[in-house]
Every structure is written in C-alpha cells, then in structure tokens.
Structures
1.
Amino acid sequence: MAKKAPGKAAAKPLKTAKASSQSLNSLTKLPKALLLQMHDLMVKSRMLEERLIKIYKAGDAYFWIGAPGEEAWGVPIGLQVLKGRGPEYDYLHMHYRATPTLVAMGMPMIDSIRLIMNRSTDPSTGGRNFSNHYSFPEWNVAPVTSPIEVQYGIALGTAHVQKRHKSKGITLVTGGDAGTAEGDFASCLIWSSRKGRELPMLITVQNNKWGISTSFDGQHGETNIADRARAFNIKARSINGNDPIESYLTLQEDMAYIRKTGKPAFIEAHVSRLYGHSSASGANFVSNELCCLNDFETKLLKAGLIKEAAVKELYEKYAQEGFEAQQIVKGEPVPTSESIWDNVYVGSENADWRKF
Amino acid sequence: MANMAQAIRMALHYGEKNLAVKDIFGQDVGAPLGGVFTATQGLENSWNTPLDERGIISMAMGIAMTGERCVAEIQFVDYIFNTIDLLKIAGNTLWCTNGGFPLPMVIMSPVGAGIRGSVYHSHSFDAWASRLPGWKVVMPSNPLDAYGLLLSAIQDPNPVLFLKPKALMRVRGDDLIPGEPEDEKELKAMIDAPIGDRTSWKPRWPKVEGYMVPIGQGKITRAGEQVTLVSYGRHLLLCNQVADELKEEGYSVEVIDLRSIYPYDWQMIKTSVEKTGRVVFVNEDTEVTNFAEHLVYRVVQELFYSLLARPLVVAGKNVPGIGLHPNLEDASVPQKHEIAEAVRSVVAEVP
C-alpha cells in the first residue's frame, strides 16, 4: 500500500485568490472539457514542480530550476503541439521552464523526477544534467541547455528543414526575457524573416520581468520585446501569459497562421515567477506575484464549472503521484562511473583516447 | 590534377548527389561567389547566409537535429571564436542526451597562415578543436585527402570539423581524384566559374566516384629509420621537403601525415616511434597547450623506454596574432629551417 504524501498543506487548492485578471465571460471562448483539461494539467504541473522543489530541499537533488507560475502559458502549448518525430511534426526548442508543456504533452511525472534525481533511468539525460533540462527525440523536443538563448538559433535549422519539406510541422522556440540580450535572439529574428526565405517558426518569449536577480528595467530599454520582432515584419504581439484562455487562443491562431503561410510569428507572454529563479535563490514561494493557477481556478469555481471537492481531489491525486514517483525513483539505479564514456560519439566509439 | 579548392567542390558535389547533402551554406558560399576560395562554386544546394557565425553554426545544429546532412562554412576560422560555446554544445549534445540526439554535421573553415593574411586571416584552430570532445577533427594536406576526408566527414554521424589549410587551396596534388579528368585545363573548363557574369553559367561535373579517407587514419608520406616527423595540413608539405632535403645529408626521416586530429592514429605514431626512437611534432598553432603537447605526453607515458631522445614540438610562437609583415609572420609560424634544425638536434642527441 502506498504511503501518503507528507506535507499535505501543499497539496491543497490555492485559497489566496486575488482579483481575477480575467472576466468570467472569457470562459465561454473554449469548451468546458478543454478548460477542465487545462486546469487539470496546470495542477499536475504545479504539483510536479513543487515535488521537485521538495526533492531538492530534502537533499535528494543537487539543484532545482523550473517553471511554477508559467502553467497558463506552457500547458496550452503542450496541448496544441503536433506531437511526433521528424520534420512532419512540430519541433520544440525550449528553455528550462518547460515542465507545463511537457506535462501537457503527456510526460509522466516520474520522468521529470528521474531527471532531477539524476538516475540512469532518466530518459532525457541519463542522469547527466539538471532538472527541467528535458530532451525527448521521439516528440521532437530538442535538448534544453543551460546556456540561455542558444535554442533561438538552433531552432532555425529545424524550421529550415520543415520549410524544405513543405510540412505541416512548425518549429516553436521559447526563452526568457533577460536572455533576449543574447545575440542568438537577434539571429533568430533576422534569419527567420528574410524575404522569400521566411521560416515556419513560432518565436516566443516568456517575460517574467526578471533575469535571475536583475529586474526587467535594469536590462531593457524597449517597451515590449515584441516590438523587436515587429521591426523584422514578423507578426508579433504581447499577451497575458497568466491567462490560459488568452494563451490558448493566441497560440491557436498563430500556429494556424504559421502552418498556412510558412512565415514566423512572435508572442511575448507576460508570466509570473512564483518560486524565484532556481534553488540558487532559495526556491521559496513569492507571494506578491500573480498565481495563474489560483486565478484560473477561482474563475472556474465562480462559474460553477468545477467544485471545491473536485479541486481538492485533484491536488491530492497529483501530490500523491509525485510522492510515490519519488519513492520509486529513490530505488532506481544511478549512472555508473564507467558510463562517462558512453555516447561521447555515436556508438560510443573513440571516446577514450587511451584506447585508440 | 585538381587543386584543393576544386577537390572540396567535387566532394561537395558528390555529397549532394550521393550522400543526401541538402544544405551547403555560409557567408558568400552560394552564387555568385561560391566561396572566397571558390570551393563551393556551382553547387546545387549552396546558399548565402547573413554575416552571422553563430547563426551559421546554430543552423547546422538544427538541421542535424532532424537527421539531415549539411555542410556549413565559417569563412575564416579566425571568426569562429564567437561560436565556441555552440561548438561545445554541438559536441556535447549526444552525450548530454545520453544518445538521444546525434548531430551529423560538417563545419569547414580555412585555417592557418601562409597567405600574408595578417592578424585575422591567419589563426589556427587545431589545438582549440582538440579540446572539443564529441567532435571529430580532420585536416588534409593534399587535394585527394581533402576529397576523401570530406566525404568521410559527411557520412559520419557525429559533428566533424574540416579544417582547410588556406595556403594549400590552390596547391595541386600528385594523385587524381577518382573520376577527375587528367588534364587540369579540362577540369578548370568544366567546374571553374568564369570571371565576370556568371548568371547563366553551369558547371559540367566530371563523374567523380566515392573515395573515403577513414577518419582517424594517418598516412606515412616518407619512410625512414632515424626520426619520426608528425604533422598535418600545410606543415606536412614542409616536413616532406625537410625529409627530402635532409636525406641528401644522410638523415632518414619518417614523415606521418596525421590527417585526423581527433581521433588520431596513435597506432601509426607508436609503431613509427618504437622503430625510430625519436620524434618531432610540427604544427602552426600556438605552442602553449598545443595539441602536439598531448601527443608528446602520450609518447612519454607509453613509449618512454623506446625513446632515444627527448620528443620535440615545433609550433607557432605564443603571440596573440600573426603580424602582416613577412618578418612577423615568418617569426611566428614554423619555418622549414626550424623543422630541419629540430630534426638534426633530435638525431644528434645521444641517450
């Protein structure tokens, strides 16, 4: 019989609702089943991230970095991705705040826990890299790297191949606002928008107004990051990424535009950062930022689309799933010392020069 | 006989037709120029990029992630340094994903001095490249090897850095590329773009054939008994000349063209040094933490009791750049007389 997850308080629905940023009317823009599915996945992603933080704080992981607070943006991406392998499907080049998207795409919680606990069973890196550094070739999820913003340049290549294939698949790239200072972001705008060579890309920035500890105002002169894309004649807009309905509808429209025209689009999504940058900054809840899950949940409750009891059950279910996954992963094998030579080259050939 | 630029061009053509190369790109790589050394003239799948080295490397990585084959060029290796973290990532992507994402891509770039290229058209990169685990690194010394190494690089499932000794781009070799016409004027008429208007020009490609130089396999270019001289690229030719000239003085010098910097042909070096007991490594990258120092380390560790003299490295001086005036360039990169002197001193050393 499975043990109960300790720390049940964290598994309770959020009760500190602030004034809603959404009107109840917006709920009519999407079917009820989809709204509830998004809420379900947002809860699941949040419970997973909070489990990852607990794992770190319990000393079962060396480092945590993740995306609690970005569920209203990340989940709608995962739900609308054309999921599969190869240029006929969408490629995703994401940064280390992709848990909500991966959860919505169907990643089991346990695989994220394997990653943060660096087990050899971790399907993304085999225990080699940090939390949220996902890689799923079977879903065209390109490897997340710690160097920020390199994904904006690499994404050009998958989009280029998709253009040649005239496929329905598009390339989606995500990153943070602070990282747009890197040259790779400019490369992305320039290469994707060349006349006659436009690339089928959805270029996105999650603007949480922070670059680790430096505020947006300390790093930017532009009013909107989306303005930079407009300068390249890219269809661009800034949205409230804390609203899953606005996120969903914007993504839906822009992804359809890209699939139809083969041209890029740009979305700047304003989001919250609820647990700071990473464990390096404490990974503690930040109470003065809007919680998108709380906001959406309050609205669903007010509209009578979901009951308190069902919400409570949802939190408990996913808290328990995360807890049980952690227990399983604790018993799983870790990478062996000898495995450092594996996959330096394809087929693990020539890795150790002592053996040439 | 093709020169190295023509050999590279024919290899890329073969790659387009037979090895599924869909993209050959870089600054001025496509029409009308076809590369600053003309190595990409007339190709079907060549195209020009923005002047953005990071974009070029990134594009190649993304293409490789789809499994498609591409060859990208950094116009001069002097300008590759702002991509070093991308090269690092390209080299570690397979490892970081535990085998999930191989990156079959080729980056080619002209390297080295020898054309009075001043500070930013003379850099070497072999030592830097050898510190990029996950990459294979090759450097030909003649057109046939350039052809064979490039085809092997294209076929390789890993990222491969193809370093082109720029001073050898117009140098012809001794061996025909399979399928190449014997008359170099005929070849030129077939595949060299005309001066002036090229809008209606199309190359007439010879029926070149598949020819692979396996990555990691060196070649003995001069057999000898007294001392082993190991080099690659432009300095391999100088080493051959030194071996030939010293032969007149009675020296017997074995010259190894390493051809691959990583993985390198240790067995060939080992066999030769066990025979000669003496070894000199020659390249033009700067001397401090030079790749040859790793080879010396390995020689000392594994062949210490076979050695009759201290191994030597003849490399570029540890200065920030290659100055334009010939006095500066010649004082910075190894010259023939320095190689000869190193050989003489190693042979003169008595254990």
2.
Amino acid sequence: MSLSLRLQHDLPDLKLDLNVEAPPGVTVLFGRSGSGKTTIVNAVAGLVKPMAGRVAVDGWELFDTEQGLWLPPHKRRLGYIFQEGRLFPHLTVRQNLFYGKWFTPKGARRENPDKVIEMLGIGHLLNRRPSGLSGGEKQRVAIGRALLASPRLILADEPLAALDDARKAEILPYFERLRDEVSVPILYVTHSAAEVARLATSVVALQEGKVLRHGPASEVLSDPSVAPAGVRAVGAVLQVRVVKHHTDGLTELDAGGASLFLPRIPLQVAEELRIRIPAQEVILSSKRPEGLSALNVLEGTVDTIRAGEGPGAIVSVKTPAGSVLARVTRRSVEALGLKPGKSCFAVIKTVALAPQDVGGHLRGA
Amino acid sequence: MGWLGPAELEALKLSLRVSFWATLVTLPLGIFVAYALARWRFPGRQVLNGLVHLPLILPPVVTGYLLLLTFGIQGPLGRLLAEFGIVVAFRWTGAALAAGIMAFPLMVRAIRLSIEAVDPKLEQAGATLGASRLFVFATVTLPMILPGVIAGAILAFAKAMGEFGATITFVSNIPGQTQTLPSAVYAFLQVPGGEAAATRLVVISIVVAMGALLLSEFIGRRVAARVAGS
C-alpha cells in the first residue's frame, strides 16, 4: 500500500512543488504552518484542485492532470480526519460512525464496526450527540468515522492540534494502533516533532511548499539542517528496547548496547519503542562527568557541528545508541574544543524525556 | 363558523387554498435558489439575486400588471399554457401564482441565511466519506437548515395570505374564484353596510397572521434544538 504524490500548485503566497513516493505505513508531512501541508492533503482529498500533478494509492489514480483525470472527493474512498473533527452535529455518534458505510461497496467493507468501536473505546457514546462529547471523545469518533468508511487511504490533518496535552496523550496511541493494526496507508500532517517521532514510517519535511528532506523519522529529525518546525523541534530519535522495570519507578532501556533510564514506561520487557531526545535537553562534556544528578550519559564522538545565526550551535554526536543532537552555545563549542572526531559525553536529564516523546511499540520502520 | 357569511367563508377558504399551494409549489424552487445564491459563484448571480428581490421592491400593482402581460390570455406564456389547457388569468391558480411570486423573496432570504450558517466544512466532510453532492445536501445541509426552511415557508404563507395589489391587478376580484381575504375586505368596504363583514375578516386576518408567526417560532425553536444536538 504505497502512495505516489506529485503536485504543483500556486497559492497567493506559496508555490507548491513536490514529488514523493511514500512507502507503506504512516507518511508524515512535517513543517511549519504555511508550508503547504494542508493544501497537499486537500488536493489528495479532492477538496482543492491543483494546477498540475498526479496522486495514486497503490497504483490507483485519484487524479492525473496530464490525462485529465479528476475523481470527485466522494469517489476517492478516503477517510479524512480533520483537525476540528467535523462531526455532524445533528446526528448521533452511531449515525456519524456509519455515515460512510452507506457508500462503501459491500465487498469493500473491511473494517468490523464492533472491533473499531471497541478499539477506540466509544461504545458508551453511541447514542449521544457530538455536542455532548469532550474534545478527545470527538476526535476518537472522527477516527472511527473515517475508518468505518473502509478507506484506501487515511488522511489526518493535524488531528491533535486542537487538543490539550492530556488529550493528545489520550489520542496518539489510537493512531499508533491504526498504523500497526490497520493495513491502510496514512498521510498525516503535523508541525509537532513529538508526533513525527512516534508515528512516522517516513517523514516528508516541507519548507515553503518544497520537500526539504524525505526519509525515515530517525534520519530526518536528527538532521539539524532540516528543523522545519524551528530549532526547538530538532532532536534525535532512538530505537530502544525495554530491559527491566526497576523498583524505584525507573525503566531501564537498551539503546544499541548503552543503557538509558526513564520514568516507568507502560510496556512489557523486550518490547521496542522509539524515544525522542530534544537537542535542547542534552548537554555535552569533554570528560566523563562525575558527581552529576543526571542518569543518562552516552559516550561518543562529535560528528558534525552546525552553527546557526544566533549564538547557538547544534552538535551531532555519534554514540552506540545512534546519533544524539545537542543544542549548545558557540562559546561552549570553543571552550570544550569540540570538532569532528573528538570524543565527548552527551548528558541527558531523565526528566527531559517528556511522555509524549515516547512512542509505543513499533513494527517495521 | 356560523357567524361568517357564505361570501366571507368562501374568501377565507380560497385564501387558505391559494396560500397553501403558493407556498408548497415555490418551496423546492426557493430552497434551490437560496442554495445557489449562498454556495455557488456563477456569472449572473447578482442578476438572479436582483430578480428574486424584484417583487419585494416593485410596487405590487406593477408586478401584477407584468404578470397580466406575461400570463394573461394574450400574453406569451399565457397563450403557451392555454395550448395545454392551462389558464391562470382570472382563476384561483393565477391568484396562487401572484401570491407565490410576491412571497418568494421572503422565503429565499430566510432559507439563504440558514444555508450560510451551515459550515461548508461539514459538507466537505460528507463528501470525503463518499456522499455525492445531492446526498450531502439531503443528509447534512437540509436537516441543518430545517429551521430556516420552516421559518421561510411560514413567512411566505403569511405573506401569501395578505397579498392584495398584484393579485387584484392580475386576476381581479371575482367572488368564489379570485376573491381572497384582502380582496374581500376591500370589496366589503366599497359597499355601504359592509363594514361588519369587513371587520370580521380583519379579525380573521389578524388571527391567521399571529397564529402563523407563533407556529413558526415554536417549530423553529424545536427543530433548532434538535439540529444543534441538545
């Protein structure tokens, strides 16, 4: 289930031009607001007609301007999860969920409604109307509604942006389950590096309508030249495995032979997950630190140093766990004598790993 | 209704029949025109908007005279319809036509306002789920604008009940055929001693108008509450 995407479109203040072949799984369009993410998704959905391009899901063409092919939105077999939910206010949750089912050919109804309702935990809401639901509940119903249309492609346009942190943490796992349990490709729009780190099979980093970089999340996010959502979004993504739950509330993780300690992660021993370490939560030391309260120290060698316009610099350190990024000042770079090839220690404070930066179990990718 | 004379009763029944059909027949067209004006951008949109509003701003007698020129026995459309055996001039159907046209702008305005209040994003959501435009209209737009449609219909009905100028110009004032409630009031006031009958009809007019208004408020509120989902 792959997605082929070629688009050219002029907006008043933006020129879109991209050509992406996305592998199966979750393809995340990542960039600042105004980088053209939503226009791309709307073009795939048929809500915006681009000047030129072609979009195909698994070889099935949704439009191709060269052939003059343009399927109207209702013939594209999509499940679009909008930022604001867009549930029908005059219908019950049940009627909302089954709205798309009327138009799905009988043979194409893949999703079992009971299973979807159970997975999303919305069984007790079926007879309610959307106005009586919380933000998180609404978004769960919106996910179910898109899924029960048995789509060939799921579109999600910043589905968490309108929610507070607690609700985000509530909804994100459902998208992980979508990725892992439903074999439908997902095109997911966000400006949050944490969501990219948790969900993405591949990331398309966008800047002003153009593809800055396309690749696996761990590569794109740890490339300091990308940072499409600003320097705060720069951070390394590490693939780790749960080793042990300690009695003092910490979970020990194995990252390529190195040990990391995090506050208790609700996963089984030996399960794999991704963690994101924001660059600004990492400090560097030229000697092995002693007498420091931070638990996580990774030894490595400096790979690249990238000075920005301000006083800061992003240092990429090769460690056994993977590349770790640190945001330090240029003055510190000089004081420590950092240069490519020099060995150093990356110090990560345990608390720096925010819960929403920790992804659940992961297949493939 | 023993206290009403046969002529007065006839005028009341005729008015109800004229207004009922005027409203019923124009309603689908009113919804369509309101939707087109609210949602579509097409050349001639402002012209259509102007045409719809014309009966509201023209003197009714002018509208009636234009109807007579068009649908009269000698008029182009009148002659065409006569070929099919349909004559509207000086018939109750003509009164319904005049009432429908006069009430049309009010109906369209009310419905258009309610369509503009529906977020087009909801209609887009319906389309992405596989619903065709017509189906989206029937399952999303129409239920959500129902309060506006009902308000528009009742407003049009009340306007049709009171229509006088265009009606009397187009189809005259024939008892039992085209003498609606307002025409009858006018006729009774022209003859000595007709004041009592005229007064009774005036009271009925007030009751019908107030009833229609209250009913529309009541239904509108109930439907709005249902549509809003509370």
